[in-house]
Write a structure and sequence with these properties.
0% strand; single chain
């Protein structure tokens, strides 16, 4: 228990160790350094993810492009967003398909209907005729 009249009792708070302040500053510096490292690696990580996604291609398609389209692809390559026209074209085709997903859904519905009608016709013809 504290006794306000005890002359042996120290009323001042314990002094802060100078090393504690240094440790806090070091910790703050370490956190700031980690954040800087993370922020510089984000674009690199994103670019690697895009590159990996683009390299998972299974079909090759030969395209004839209008000059302005070829120039647009060249701009993406010159800006080092993509390594080649092929990478840029593949990315843009995928994005175009994604942007037009309602159209592709309608096309798929019609193709399913056509297949159903073909199957109906096949069943309507007796086997062996």
């Amino acid at each position: 228990m504290s006794n306000p009249q005890d002359p042996n009792q120290d009323e001042s708070p314990a002094p802060v160790q100078p090393s504690a302040g240094r440790r806090v500053n070091e910790t703050v510096d370490e956190v700031a350094s980690s954040i800087r490292d993370f922020m510089t690696k984000v674009p690199e990580t994103f670019n690697k993810a895009v590159e990996r996604a683009l390299n998972v291609r299974e079909a090759t398609v030969l395209l004839k492009l209008n000059e302005h389209v070829a120039e647009a692809l060249d701009k993406l390559v010159t800006a080092e967003i993509f390594k080649s026209r092929a990478d840029a074209a593949a990315f843009l085709v995928e994005e175009g398909i994604r942007a037009q997903s309602p159209l592709f859904a309608r096309i798929q519905a019609k193709l399913d209907e056509i297949e159903r009608l073909r199957e109906e016709l096949r069943r309507s013809i007796p086997a062996g005729e």
